[in-house]
Specification:
The chain is α+β, with helices and mostly antiparallel strands. The chain is built from 17 helices and 29 strands. A hairpin with a 2-residue loop joins strand 14 (387-398) and strand 15 (401-412). The protein starts with a strand and ends in a 9-residue tail after the last strand.
Length: 690
């Protein structure tokens, strides 16, 4: 008889079995095997919210096979993912297989390596019912909101809509940012820059006007700007003061789930779903020539920046060998996790840091390689020495006004030799890496030019996936495992759409948000939702009973729902359509852009007299290299954008590359742009690239 280990993923099962040998059999449940029913609420609200779980129909064969193997097994271990969801899956498995949850049947692996698996197997435990109950409370809360609120939306807006405890708040955040942008009134302002140089030197530098007669330089219009500008005609520019210093720049901490998704978006242009898919694959294991099957990163759902002593020691050795001891900090770094973070797992790091990105490049997919490289470099940089910058700030006086100039040079590159975080700061100018000339007090400067520049204040930027995840995290909404599915849901439901990297609310998203704000304000209130997350964390920590959390929420929610239905009796909310300048070929009226169950389409404004509809086609400006007809933007079944010829029946040309309006200098055909910004020609026989 062998020992049976049950995990969630077949890929993970294969990797673990390799390390444990013949006395162990590792099988996969392929995710959840029990859940609340799809066709009804499945929660007995009158009897302490008792969930009515049922076996998932599509898992019938899996369950039969698991029971069969369990009967023959000497010992059974449940090794699902080490988080709330994984603990709940193990609990459901224990129920189906008749296992005692208090017995040491639960094992967890923070990393799928030989040492990680050996450590997990040597520390079995009973199931953590606080973790299970926190997951149950979240699942039931989401079911109550979804199943009670969605029918309200069907009656008042249209069928097929859904509301969610986290997704509705995410949509509100995007909607309110768009309203800020629409309401924004640009304010004109002017700045004055001086192009200066040291007498006798050719190299110039720029200084910005900072003070006028002892007051902050604030120029509201062109008249004011030119009045001040006139003061500098023939004025002498003299160095008033020089301040030099050495500034330390520290590395960012290793990744947690949210920062990984943000940086993958900014550096790799990965959406959150794509990033987490690649991370899951790296965690579960890939086949390498010298190592066989091995999990390359630690568990990817974490909000802790903690790093084990063993990992720090390994990083120290690699840094010393690669870059020298001067690239090590004086003492190993400790990063503080944010308040309220769960410290059950380490930060996301390479499970074996000696396996470099170059070592795996030929054995993994492009996405896996790019994400591993990002994780590896971020982790290694986090263990390296500070960068040292020589900074210099100069004040320059001219006609009782003060100009300021600053710059820096790198004295020691430190961790930036390997990796530097992308910082997106709103409304702040990026620090310039520029060396100012040698300057000292009272040195007179040559004036090459003094110019006035017109500016306008800018509205706040639209959210991207990266900045939305940051906003959700900062507001305490959702948890590491929920960011990617939340964003996917609001896009799939057409409450939000993506343009380039920006997230914009649709008219449907606007209507739903306003309706929920008017009648269910707590559901879409960021502070209330964050408070619910804290209560779920309290359940996980064993400080709060999960049933109490549900009672507290539901009593108010039920009253709110009842009042909303009463207030909206006999009323419906219309989702405004977008009017196009395209005429209906049947009746001549304008076509409207509508949102249906499967996304956007065009319908005649003469409905119901005219029922003409057509597919919404996005032209690209490029042309097909095979037949010369227009290229259209399309999407695959998985939502990945691609481009195809408009005459798809006769010409089957398609490509992932973006069509552009430029023509090939060799053959005259239209060109395409690859993901890496390379321009190429797709005309058969033409090899033009640039």
């Amino acid at each position: 008889m062998s020992n049976l280990i049950i995990v969630e993923s077949p890929a993970k099962a294969k990797t673990i079995e390799k390390y444990l040998g013949k006395s162990y059999r590792v099988v996969a449940s392929v995710g959840h095997i029990r859940d609340l029913p799809k066709s009804k609420l499945g929660v007995d609200v009158k009897h302490d919210f008792t969930p009515q779980y049922e076996n998932k129909k599509e898992k019938k064969e899996v369950i039969t096979e698991l029971k069969k193997k369990a009967k023959k097994a000497k010992n059974i271990y449940l090794a699902t993912d080490p988080d709330r969801e994984g603990e709940a899956i193990s609990w459901h498995l224990a129920h189906i297989l008749g296992l005692d949850v208090n017995q040491p049947i639960r094992v967890t692996f923070n990393e799928i390596t030989k040492s990680g698996i050996e450590f997990g197997m040597s520390n079995p435990r009973g199931l953590d019912m606080d973790l299970v109950n926190a997951q149950q409370a979240r699942r039931i809360l989401d079911r109550l909101v979804g199943y009670k609120l969605s029918p309200f939306l069907w009656k008042k807006v249209r069928k097929g809509l859904s509301a969610g405890r986290v997704q509705s708040v995410a949509v509100r955040i995007i909607v309110e940012r768009e309203k800020e942008i629409m309401a924004f009134v640009p304010q004109e302002y002017w700045s004055i820059d001086a192009q200066l140089s040291v007498k006798g030197e050719r190299k110039t530098f720029y200084a910005k006007l900072a003070q006028i007669d002892g007051n902050k330089a604030e120029l509201e219009n062109e008249t004011q700007a030119h009045e001040v500008l006139a003061r500098f005609e023939g004025a002498e520019f003299t160095v008033d003061g020089v301040k030099k210093s050495i500034r330390k720049k520290q590395p960012a901490p290793p990744f947690i789930t949210s920062t990984l998704q943000q940086e993958a978006s900014k550096k790799l242009s990965f959406n959150s779903r794509r990033a987490m898919k690649a991370a899951q694959e790296l965690y579960e294991g890939v086949e390498l020539p010298e190592h066989g099957l091995i999990g390359l990163i630690t568990y990817m759902r974490t909000d802790s920046t903690r790093i084990s002593d063993e990992a720090k020691a390994e990083a120290k050795q690699i840094i010393t060998n690669r870059y020298g001891e001067e690239y090590l900090p004086k003492k190993p770094r400790e990063f503080k996790s944010k308040k309220g973070s769960q410290d059950g797992h380490e930060a996301i790091r390479p499970s074996v840091a000696s396996i470099t990105p170059d070592d795996i490049k030929q054995s993994v997919s492009a996405d896996q390689y790019k994400l591993y490289k990002l994780i590896w470099e971020r982790f290694m940089a986090s263990q390296m020495a500070d960068a040292l910058l020589d900074t210099m700030s100069v004040s320059i006086k001219a006609d009782n006004c003060i100009f300021k100039a600053s710059g820096y040079t790198v004295r020691f590159d430190g961790f930036t030799r390997l990796y530097e975080e992308i910082i997106e700061s709103e409304g702040q100018e990026k620090e310039q890496k520029v060396a100012l000339p040698a300057l000292s007090k009272d040195v007179k400067l040559k004036t090459n030019a003094v110019k006035a520049n017109q500016h306008f204040t800018q509205p706040p930027p639209r959210y991207t996936e990266a900045s939305l995840i940051k906003a959700l995290e900062e507001n305490g909404i959702g948890r590491p495992s929920t960011y990617a599915p939340t964003i996917s849901t609001i896009l799939d439901r057409h409450y939000v759409e993506r343009q380039q990297k920006q997230l914009l609310p649709t008219p449907l998203g606007d209507v739903i948000t306003d309706l929920l704000k008017d009648h269910f304000n707590r559901i879409v209130d960021t502070k209330f939702t964050a408070g619910m997350e804290q209560e779920l964390d309290s359940v996980e920590e064993g400080n709060t009973q999960w049933v109490d959390v549900l009672h507290k929420f539901y009593e108010d929610f039920e009253q709110t729902l009842s009042k909303a239905e009463s207030d909206m009796e006999g009323k419906r909310v219309k989702v405004p359509d977008e009017v196009t300048d395209i005429e209906c070929e049947l009746c001549g009226k304008h076509m409207l852009i509508k949102i249906g169950r499967f996304g956007k389409f065009m319908g005649c404004s003469g409905f119901p007299d005219c029922r003409n509809t057509k597919q919404l086609i996005a032209e690209t400006g490029g042309f097909c290299p095979k037949c010369g007809k227009k290229m259209l933007a399309k999407k695959s079944k998985k939502g990945r954008p691609f481009f195809g010829c408009e005459d798809f029946k006769s010409c089957n040309f398609m490509t992932w590359d973006t069509p552009i309006a430029d023509k090939c200098p060799l053959c005259g055909n239209y060109l395409f742009q690859k993901a890496g910004k390379k321009i190429c020609c797709h005309k058969e026989g033409c090899e033009f690239e640039k």
